[in-house]
Amino acid sequence: MLYRLKTDFRLSIITLLGISALLGISPFAVMRFAQGNMLAGIVDTTIMLAIMAGMIYAWITGDTARTGLAMAIIACAGAVTVGAVVGEPGLFWLYPCLVTSFFLTESRYAIVINLAAVITLMVHGVAFSSTIQMWSFSATAVVVSCCAYVFAHRNENQRERLEHLATIDPLTGVKNRRSMDEELAMAAASAARTGISYALVLLDIDHFKKINDAHGHSVGDDVLTEMVALIEQNIRKSDQMFRFGGEEFVLLMSGVDETGLRAVMHNLQHIMHKFLKHPGGKVTASFGVALLKDGETPDNWLARADEALYKAKASGRDQIVYADDMAAQEPAPETA
Hints:
alpha+beta; 5-stranded mixed β-sheet
């Protein structure tokens, strides 16, 4: 639970709004009913229940985009309704809603929602005691919305930059191991749900330490970046590449069968032989390949690919070894 709140900013805002609605609106709803103002009590209760329902839906489905948009509309529409029913005291509820909308949904939607809320109150007019008050309220609402927009926009940019730093390898520009773990889990879940086939390829540059020792780390870095660029030019956009560590990389491919996978791997090896070089000669790599089995966990899947890679390196390097071939070559267990 805490992990989801830490990693999903919009879900945390939705949760905060839900808790605030429960603690902040329910006392007013009780007070309205106690005062005999049934309409205002019903409005407060309806707003609170709608926001709570949205929060629960977001937690169950993970669909924070549509939930956030719906909750921004509900919050602002509810504040407008309270202002129309209660009058001047109800106007104050709109201010937090104007701020929150920029964190619940995209800025373009929040702008439309906020403007619609303010204009609706102005057209209705009952909540204001004078024209001066109406325009003063409208001006302050616009200022609050502008400040919220700037803050939310800046916050979004910072979060994107931090996410990029946390998930992207700075040298090669491909995703790092943290991203890989998440994508493998998603691939296993997708395969179980849809039946789509997935393949995992571990590749390790042969004798990479010798390249660094003989020509320097700058040449080694150039080899890594050139290899990544070469591979990305020859795989599909739907395929993903990750830096596993050092000179080891991982390819995640979807929708491939055994025949197509072997053709792809043969082509990648051929392209590396032809184009990937360093001052001392050509650069080769060893490959371990594993197709995801039914019901297999990401850890077991990765372990089989790693075992195939180990065999490729032990067999003289510059080899492609398939985990399924290794399993077929294992002797059958003896029977009594």
